[in-house]
């Protein structure tokens, strides 16, 4: 008696080939003009220091503290990274990157915030 053979799933066959001959990794990581706007974002240190009064000096990892502009704050509860641009409010306002901070601070949509920060169309 012959034992049944295992069937290979189409996703495991080959090395991720899809219709058209490109792998999923190459399709996802293909650089295009739309991805280059991130290179034109402002320097996080300049951006945050212009918008947050009383920004502390950064620690060794680049994190500095300030009062959160999104809620009434008596003490510094906002941490911003002056190297990569990330931010986090420890009072529960949220976290994100420089772009999400700008969206929330100004009330702009994603497209408008990108256009304003990069100095051009998104």
Automatic annotation (TrEMBL):
GO terms for biological process: DNA replication. This is Molecular chaperone. Residues 64-118 form the Zinc finger CHC2-type domain. It comes from the Bacteria. Residues 1-22 are annotated as: Disordered. Residues 1-11 have a biased composition (Basic residues). SMART domains: ZnF_CHCC. One of its GO terms (molecular function) is DNA-directed RNA polymerase activity.
């Amino acid at each position: 008696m012959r034992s049944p053979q295992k069937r290979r799933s189409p996703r495991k066959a080959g090395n991720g080939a899809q219709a058209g001959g490109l792998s999923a990794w190459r399709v996802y990581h293909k650089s295009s003009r739309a991805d280059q706007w991130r290179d034109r974002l402002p320097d996080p240190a300049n951006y945050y220091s212009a918008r947050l009064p009383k920004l502390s000096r950064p620690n060794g990892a680049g994190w500095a503290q300030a009062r959160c502009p999104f809620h009434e704050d008596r003490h510094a509860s906002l941490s911003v990274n002056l190297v990569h641009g990330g931010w986090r409010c420890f009072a529960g306002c949220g976290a994100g990157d420089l772009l999400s901070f700008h969206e929330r601070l100004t009330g702009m949509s994603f497209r408008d915030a990108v256009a304003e920060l990069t100095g051009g169309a998104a």
